[in-house]
Amino acid sequence: MDIAFIEGKLAEIIKVLEQEVMEVLMDESLDKKQTNLHMKPLTSTKKILDNALDSIKMVDTLGKEELAK
């Protein structure tokens, strides 16, 4: 499994999410409640991607350990 490739692609996605976050934060037409409502899905998506990457790394490590036995 090419972990570096996966990390790179997820980093690209996270970069786009961060741009969306900045757009929401800079939108002065939104009040605090609307800003928070727009932020929740973006924050959740980033957490999901981080957790997915951690899981992929763990599975890769365990797979390599099994092959080494």
Descriptive account of the structure:
By secondary structure, the chain is mainly α. It is 88% helix and 0% strand. The protein contains two helices and no strands. Helix 1 packs antiparallel against helix 2. The two termini are 18 Å apart.
**H/I helix tally:** 2
> How many strands, which pairing sense, and closed or not: the largest β-sheet?
none
How would the global form be characterised?
elongated
- The tally of beta strands, per DSSP, is 0
What is the SS-derived class?
mainly alpha
Helix proportion range: over 70%
Stretches with pLDDT under 50, minimum 5 residues: none
Q: In sequence order, what are the helices and strands, one letter per element?
A: HH
In short:
The chain has 69 residues and is mainly alpha-helical.
